[in-house]
Design a protein that fits this description.
single chain, alpha+beta, Trna Endonuclease, Chain: A, domain 1, four-stranded mixed beta sheet
Length: 130
């Protein structure tokens, strides 16, 4: 059964995530008109200056799909699972990458309101899989 939160648009989801992030002290960047950005670029980029964390987040509606066949100028994709360059993002200490949908709101709040990613005890040399 579809819940009401699953029916929100990607724009509404983005506004909600930005509000949660800024309330928790994150600096948030996003592209206002994605038609002029690199294909596959994450919807949100967020940095927390105190917690020393950096998050890339792709947002999709409940049924939202990834655009296929579009490559950026580096002939690469951003999303984990799409190519080797994107997979490398998972191995860079300090970068977390998430795909979030409206059904993930509880997880989004948890991720943005904790000082360390789940399962990480120290920021020193930690590699975060997302």
């Amino acid at each position: 059964m579809t819940q009401a939160k699953d029916l929100i648009s990607e724009d509404s989801l983005q506004a909600t995530v930005v509000e949660i992030a800024r309330t928790a002290g994150w600096i948030v960047w996003f592209t206002h008109d994605a038609r002029r950005s690199e294909p596959g670029e994450p919807d949100l980029r967020m940095a927390h200056p105190v917690w020393k964390r950096y998050i890339c987040a792709e947002l999709k509606t409940l049924k939202g799909k990834f655009t296929t066949g579009r490559w950026n100028r580096a002939n690469s994709r951003w999303l984990i699972g799409q190519d080797e360059a994107a997979e490398a993002l998972k191995t860079i200490p300090g970068i977390e990458y998430y795909l979030w949908r409206p059904s993930d709101l509880d997880e989004i709040e948890r991720v943005l309101q904790q000082s360390l990613p789940q399962g990480v005890e120290s920021m020193d040399g930690a590699t975060r899989g997302c």
